[in-house]
From TrEMBL:
GO BP term, example: methylation
Positions of the Methyltransferase type domain: 48-141
Coiled coil: none
Pfam families: Methyltransf_11 (PF08241)
Protein name: SAM-dependent methyltransferase
Assigned keywords, A-Z: Methyltransferase, Transferase
Similarity comment text for this entry: Belongs to the methyltransferase superfamily.
Organism: Halobacillus faecis
Length: 258
């Protein structure tokens, strides 16, 4: 199961590599500024950005840290990102699986992962690896889409994400992430959840080329139960879905070995 999921991820991201460099969602400056503010990276810090995608976080970190390692499962994506960021001299690029990182224990002061963990088959293995490669008192910052705590809304959310992108595995609930952090001696220092507005057309076309597939997702939105329409703020105009919102979680945790 896990290998098949990872093959899907590579297919989707190889095909859409430039879309993730250009994506307005992924290069949102206020997000990147917020990450720097929360982490306070410095020149003595060695940082790791997991599932770097278009490299936006790695680039932001590289202006503050001594060295940044940008990793991604998808070589095509990473190659494209390396070309795009060729002026940043202190970024190293490594093809790596988030659930089996090729680094020694306690290698990094800072670890980041943004808008990616919902593609990982085993969030438990991912957090275990983050905790392993972090130095004691090192910090991990994650931003990802999360499912609502309500089971029906959780199911609706993960269903439409999977329809639109077959490499989507599952967005966890905040309560599930918190449990994983506790299990791996990572204490939450700061967190927030917020609504993220998504332009429907840009979002659906980034991974679906077939018009019939795009329409199927739109129909699901249009026929959504009242509770889902309300929670996800589904906006329609002239019988077309214009936009919706999803829940996003931003969190910083600190490692404490003892």
């Amino acid at each position: 199961m896990s290998d098949e999921v990872k093959r899907h991820v590579k297919e989707v991201f190889s095909k859409n590599k430039q879309a993730y460099v250009d994506s307005t969602t992924h290069k949102k400056q206020s997000d990147l500024d917020g990450m720097i503010e929360w982490l306070k990276p410095g020149p003595s810090h060695k940082a790791l950005d997991i599932a770097t995608g278009g490299g936006h976080v790695a680039k932001a970190l590289s202006s503050h840290c001594g060295t940044v390692f940008a990793t991604d499962l998808t070589k095509d994506m990473l190659q494209n990102t390396a070309r795009h960021l060729n002026s940043q001299q202190n970024i190293e690029y490594v093809v790596a699986d988030a659930e089996q990182l090729p680094f020694l224990d306690e290698s990094f002061d800072l670890v980041t992962c943004r808008i990616a963990p919902h593609h990982f088959p085993s969030p438990h293995d991912f957090i275990e690896e983050v905790a392993r490669v972090l130095k004691d008192q090192g910090r991990f910052l994650m931003i990802d889409n999360v499912a609502p705590e309500d089971d029906e809304l959780d199911e609706f959310y993960n269903h439409f994400e999977k329809m639109r992108d077959y490499s989507h595995v599952r967005a966890l609930k905040v309560s599930e992430w918190e449990k994983l952090f506790r299990t791996h001696q990572l204490s939450v220092k700061k967190h927030l959840t917020r609504k993220k507005a998504m332009p429907f057309s840009d979002w659906v076309c980034r991974t679906l080329e077939d018009e019939a597939d795009q329409k199927a997702v739109e129909e699901l939105f249009k026929q959504a139960p009242t509770g889902a329409k309300s929670h996800f703020c589904i906006q329609e105009e002239n019988s077309r879905v214009q936009s919706f919102t999803i829940d996003e979680y931003m969190v910083v945790v600190e490692k404490h070995s003892s």
